Amino acid sequence: MVRVSDATSTFVQESQEDIQKLNNALLDLEDDPEGSDAIETVFRVAHNLKGNFGVMGYTTASNLAHAIEDLLDCIRDGELEVTPERMDLIFNGVDHLAQMVAEISDTGETNTDPEETIEAIRASIEDGESAGGEDDGNDADTDTNTDAVATDRKVPLEDLADDIDREALENETNVYRAALELDDSGSPQVDAMFVLDAAGDEFELLRTVPANETIEAGEFDAVFDAYVTAADDETDRGSVEAFFDDNRYVEGASVTDVTDDIVDELTADGDDAGDSDEESGDSTGSSTNVTHSSKEVESIRVDVEQIDQLYNQVEEMVTSRIKLRKIIEGSDLVEAEDELEEHGKITASLQDTVLEIRLVPLKKIVGNFPRIVRDISRDQGKEIDFQMEGVDIEMDRSILNELGDPLMHLIRNAVDHGIESPEEREEKGKPREGTIKLIGERERDRVSVTVKDDGGGLDVEKIRSKAVEKGVMSEDEVQLLDDSEVYDLIFHPGFSTTEEVTEVSGRGVGMDVVNQVVRGVDGSINVESAPDEGTAITLMLPVSVAIVRVLFVTVGDETYGVPIKNIDEISEFEDVDIESVEGRKTVTHDGNVYPLLSLGNRLDVPDTEPDDDDMVVRIKDSVRQVCLRCSDVMGQEEVVIKPFEGVLSGAPGISGASVLGEGEVVMILDVDTL
């Protein structure tokens, strides 16, 4: 990544904020086309973006912002109406602006060519009939016979031979080339993605010309080829052509069987498909679905008073350090102890200030969620009212960065598989419009973030059946689970009850990753659901980074940390009531039975034979009803927990590690997953 100047960095940050404001204001305008406040906000932000791009010398981006501003001006003056198609065109332009800002952040310059979008916007202004306009400069392409256009897009036979093997052809797998022309909707890349998603469900999609990345970026002429295979005996060229003709986004389709043509090329060495991509025109920009990705919080704004406070505390710490050095040199231990206590107070105050500075509002990472919901629901023909509450609550920046993808996954699942279609909701006696809420709440040092929908809810019996089918549990075991325990099964790796996995993904797919990420930042997840009433998934998270007080325990020659907040009682082994239930040791306390886990066995620590001098640590019932057996207890201390990354991330029983003052690395136990 090229390092950009401070001025460019500030420009990028302000532009990202403006683009988010523009997206949200456009959503307000779409909901209430007659609302004067929404159109004024949209126009003002677009005007500001145009000016800032121009001042910084990014002429291409400024031209695009100018075109958007002009279109909005026509809407403001009543010359054009707010239509879904026109809003799609504006959103597409905003996505291009966001992509260009991202490029500026990375390299200091833009690579995206938005000329086609600018022309479409200008055409929409001129004819005032549709978002893409009927004279968008592409008539020569769209009026051309599909076969003629597609002829120039043929993939070299040796490349197709690389995409399929001889065994497949011997099994009478046919290869078809579908030359497709899209309806003129003003958003060809969106329409193309729907066509390709449908084709991927019906056939095996070998490749597209131009390449998929080019289509996603919208850098094509609404005409493209899709090469597919079909092993079904009932599938022939006519049925493939009928499939594409029936797609509502396709204006014309011509299908040819190219099976015989590639048989002779099957054993040839295939070359890269780059030549064919070049023939159809290389993409000058990358995908514009930037509003659908999670971004890290790269900068924070700090109050001047906090900076002054931080400076004063550092000044006090330097003074205290000098005093300590002189006292130690004079060997006055009493005075040294007093000064050390004062030094500790300064350090604690400094720690609080730094943690306060790192706090960032939740809206920093969820600000683009309304746009995500709008795009997915529009694509799927659903009606959804998306609401966000409590997004001004603040959390540590590092936790927010981890939280972005899990929350986005929950939101996309709620739209895709939580909320039913308007027709299905009407059949159930529910309003056509579904509701999804994202609610943030703070309770002392913890924050809860809930994603709640009023959709179909989780099917308990279906989850039970799937658990048995996948070998997660036996039939007898799964029937003993209550509903809340059944819901927890969706966090098992690869678990999903969704038969058809869409591009947005099925509820349950990836939920294991959500669970790992949340637990990795010392959080937890709770799921509540009811048939036809909806589902609520709540993430419980710490406000600040994991600086916690831990109890150090030894297991053989190794030392581990257990968070004090999870511990209820510490006892000597000989003082606890040990029993054996079905071959497993248990501890009875106040009438409750606690399984006794040997840390030596659970952590595979060598040379840890049971001893009568062992200690027993009883965990709080609210965390997990269990007791831990260890060799000894070594005291407690505040530590900074660093979660593991890479292959160690999400390891059960371990929440992270801490480096002690002597440089010793100690693993911190996650008693909930041990």
UniProtKB/TrEMBL annotation:
It is an enzyme of class 2 (transferase). Residues 128-148, 266-297 are annotated as: Disordered. Residues 128-144, 266-281 have a biased composition (Acidic residues). Residues 547-674 form the CheW-like domain. PROSITE patterns: CHEW (PS50851), HIS_KIN (PS50109), HPT (PS50894). PANTHER family: CHEMOTAXIS PROTEIN CHEA, SENSOR HISTIDINE KINASE CHEA. This is Chemotaxis protein CheA. It comes from Natrialba magadii (strain ATCC 43099 / DSM 3394 / CCM 3739 / CIP 104546 / IAM 13178 / JCM 8861 / NBRC 102185 / NCIMB 2190 / MS3).
